[in-house]
Design goal:
The complex is a heterodimer of chains A (251) and B (455). With 251 residues, chain A is an alpha/beta fold. Helices cover 47% and strands 12% of the residues of chain A. In chain B, α2 packs across α12 and α16 runs parallel beside α18. Classes of the chains: A alpha/beta (251), B alpha/beta (455). Chain B: Keywords: 4Fe-4S, Iron, Iron-sulfur, Metal-binding.
Chain lengths: 251, 455
Amino acid sequence: MEQSQPNVGLFIPCYVDQFYPQVGKATLEILEKLNCKVSYPLDQTCCGQPLANSGYERETKESCQQFLNSFLKFDYIVAPTGSCVHHIKERYSKILNAPELQPSLNSKIFELTEFLHDILKVELQGTFRHKIGYHASCHALRGLRLSKSSEVNTAPFDKVKSLFEKVEGLEWSQLQRSDECCGFGGTFSVKEEAISLSMGKDRLADHHEAGTEILTATDMSCLMHLKGLADKKQSTLPIMHLAEIINQIIS
Amino acid sequence: MSHSKASTDFLRNTEHAKWHDETLWMIREKRDLASQKVPEWENLRTLASSIKEHVLSNLDQLLLEFEANATKNGIQVHWAKDAQEHNQIVLDILKKQSCAQVVKSKSILTEECHLNPFLEKNGIEVIDTDLGERIVQFLHQPPSHIVLPAIHLKKRDISELFHQKLQTEKGNEDPYYLTQAARTHLREKFLKAKVAITGVNFGIAETGEFVVCTNEGNADMGVHLADVHIACMGIEKLIPRRNDLGVFLRLLARSATGQAITNYTSHFRGPEKGKQIHLILVDNGRTEQLGREKFRNSLKCIRCGACMNTCPIYRRSGGFSYQSTVPGPIGSILSPGLDLKKYSSLPFASTLCGSCTDVCPVKINIHEQLYEWRQEITKANPNHAEILSMKLASGIFKSPLAYRISGILMRKLIKNLPDSLIYNPWNVWGKGRKLPETPQESFRNWYLNHRNNEQ
């Protein structure tokens, strides 16, 4: 078995590193429990997406190179985020004007649940007795195509939810708008503050009506925005990153 | 005014904003249902996108073919390089007909060219005959949506407006009653008009005919009663063959309103005996857009408006917040090509959620083009404070040491500063949202203490 143990580089987005270390820990523990050899390269920084989405992609060439220097040596690069993974996978080869990078990015880098689904082919077994509100983060949904978006008329699939099919007691909230954006959008959240807040409130109301007990997502950034809004209104809405839920189930 | 300022104003009326969001979402849902009834929907989108790709790559030849065939059919073809030339051609035709009053059905191109104010300045009365357009014309407003021009107004507003303009009963909000009043009012205008202006949805190169899609029949009514028909067409509205038309007709109305097809799909091939058809082919920046590799396929747009109905920002900010003829996601990638400075805030009025791209019937990668316009805008309109902060961030992200130090400082600051300092008016995040609680240590520190054996 030793030989088939995948050598995984763990990428923890900058804001998760700083604000949500428990999500990083959960991700690491999941991968270790699933028999991966996991390393966290200590010289990693930020993927550069906040700058690039603000129109300063050209200022990120060195941080892209920094990332690749830290990570390309691994069999796989796994991160608890759809958004940063999408940015790296879709844009790095263009930013660095290096199309030859694309095949290795395609085969190496994965959002956590995508890695569990596509590469480790995990079927979670266990119990989690809660009604979960799943917020489909846009870059995971329409960027990485982790599930079918509501606009597109192809056969339905959902890589995230299918991981949980055998988990006992877990119920998904049925939302009025299954995949509307939460309104975070990086610097959008401050540049277009009014709309950002309005979108977030509407998502929270949808989850409230659907009876969500715990709100989850692939991306802590959406959850940070939604939790920040809920806290301001003094409403108690427990949030857990998918990694935290999965880690509880398989422990 | 920036989009952000305009949207803040729009959202102040929370009840109206909620209604606007829900109304447009309902249209998005109708589109979903209608498109799901077509099993080959995704193939149609791919096909439509490829046909338009072909058109854009062969636009010069196809336009000449179209002109030759249209001329053969007896249509008088004019070329306008910009809005000014377009407007002048229309005015010249009207003068030749000694026409002081013209009826016009919906045409976003004539809005783009600001034809109405130009003609009015030259003493010609323009009557918009599309109901929604007539309503906004009464209010001296531009359309707020390309398919639903008066979607920002409620029944109550229209009842009040018609009471003033058409002397309907005060307070009568019955849609049937109000529509009848508009019909009677417009009927009189139709009967008098010698010239009718329409837009064009599709020009067919192979046959030299053009197609106009409407729901109210106002384009046909205007054209058939008038002696002269002026059709205004953007050069990108071309398709190669009549056979291709079905692909687009099946997509257009379903994407726009959830109808299987528009109530009227009228083909104009040549003038009746004793009448004239003038077709004006307008460039107005399209050739330039075609030359921009990253943005050229924005010209595939068939103006269905689906990207507006699905856009969470458009629904919550209204069409006027974009201050461009075409609002919403597609407007935000078309308008910067016309005036980069004026429309510089539009590509930032998006979370890049990608819903517009997924809903687009001709598969324009709208959200990716929004991202690309952001890159262009920061180069063309440098904001020195922003550049400085971006350079600072870039310096931090490329250096692992600088990144670690700034992270430690940030967490210490947020943890130890009093709330009154953190939630100050300059902290836009903190006005409506709490900041996350700061943990004792970063993940990196925890990892060093618990896992790392390498150092």
